[in-house]
Amino acid sequence: MTNPIPLHSRHAAVLPDWLALYYDRPIELTHGEGRHVWDADGNRYLDFFGGILTTMTAHALPEVTKAVSEQAGRIIHSSTLYLNRPMIELAERICALSGIPDARVFFTTSGTEANDTALLLATTYRRSNQILAMRNSYHGRSFSTVSITGNRGWSPTSLSPLQTYWVHGAVRTRGPFAALPDDGFTAAAVADLEDVLGQARGGVAALIAEPIQGVGGFTSPPDGLYGAFREVLDRHGILWISDEVQTGWGRTGEHFWGWQAHAQNGPPDILTFAKGIGNGMSIGGVVARAEVMNCLDSNSISTFGGSPVTMAAGLANLAYLQEHDLQGNARRVGGLLLERLRAVCAGVPAVREVRGRGLMAGLELTKPGTDRADPQAAAAVLEAARAGGLLLGKGGGHDTSVLRVAPPLSLTVAEAEEGADILEQALRTIR
Questions:
Q1: How much is the pTM?
Q2: DSSP helix, strand, coil percent of the chain (3-state; round to 5)
Q3: How many helices, marked H, and strands, marked E, lie in the chain?
Q4: Could you report the per-residue pLDDT of 231-242, keeping only the tens digit for each?
């Protein structure tokens, strides 16, 4: 017998108030195929958010569902206490792709847990609890990752096991350096980093940075900034952690990893990943050179990290991504989509900026003629897009309201045009 209480009411009765839902009338997604999903009322939507950049290749991708089903039919769980062939095979693939020499991989179940592990490694290796983090950043919801998240909307407590120093540079078009040309911006951010290090006591453990800030609204610095930071970090022995939870696996089109836009002084010491590699399955992980990864001097395991089923999904998903050149598709179709979005928004006074790279685009909405955020406008466009059959995401720092566009990497040109048309209509609701 069907429960007569609406699902939204049941959600509110048993789940936390801070577990946010999109839309005035939240929707239940029941199934998906390709770049589309359907809700419980039978409405079909073009998905331009992919479960927060997690459905990376396509919904119900046959190669992934087959791999999951076949592995589940053999064994679902064993833990890291036993040899695990799918985990070893995926680790081998990721080590080779990471760009980090003598790399080792530790699998987790989420990006939060991956960043938490990276912080454990860095602070242990450097014997310091001091961390450099970027303003406007987001790194997860655990106690340690909240403390290095520079976005107050996602920082529920000021308590912290770490001492965090905040660095400028991750937001190109806001802040004290915004008016500078790219080379001047980078030089000013490097000078700020040097100044911040003058405030630290002893050796700082690491800098953690998203090459493109995800939750912060798809903001990024000029190419090469983190490479310039690396020169300073190396002089002080400070590790560089690249948070690739949202930028990894070719989403930016031009590069497989976001750090590669800042590669003039080599790869990061530690790389974290999650989201897209599992195409919806719970996979996160840390890549680090062996010297750093092996610095822990006590036992550690992961009960669910590296599960045979999730690893099988990751292997199938990564193979599909590479065999179908989805990075190239992100570059080609993403470039066309960005051009179309800029054309759509050119006549909309509320759109301050369209930015992004590959299939990772942000539309920042402000009160027309000002830099003041307009969250009401962002919410209105989100609702209007949903009514038109398009699902988007939201983000931004304390003073921005950004619509986030991040569809599966298999998006077609026709679907990009369709999504842009719906978004154009939705933007007219705020004129």
A1: 0.96
A2: 40, 20, 40
A3: 13, 15
A4: 999 999 999 999
